[in-house]
Design goal:
Keywords: Hydrolase. The chain is mainly α and 113 residues long. It is built from four helices and no strands. 68% of the residues lie in helices and 0% in strands.
Length: 113
Amino acid sequence: MALKNKLYKEQLVSKTVTLPRLNRLNPSLESTALKIMEESGELAQAIGKLRGLSGERQRLEEEEAMQKVAQELVDVAQTAVTMMFVLEEQYGIDLEVILKEHLDKLRNKGYCD
């Protein structure tokens, strides 16, 4: 198993996720930030229940629990992308520049090539 994980990590250099701009919403910066916190709490709750950190007995098998964790993580990501749209559309932030700066920072810290 360790060899399989090592090979997987060596092959995986980056992950690209494309999430849509949501329709029929008029999010503000504040409402989106609150939604990120809500979704992050749901992610933490899913992880906590799996690990027994909430004082509850584990009710889900690990595979089912990891599916729930993955679903909550995507909810967090979707809400973060929504906030990116808010920053671009309402505040004129150029996220391409911000993303480039972020990648440069990661490279400078040695976190990626």
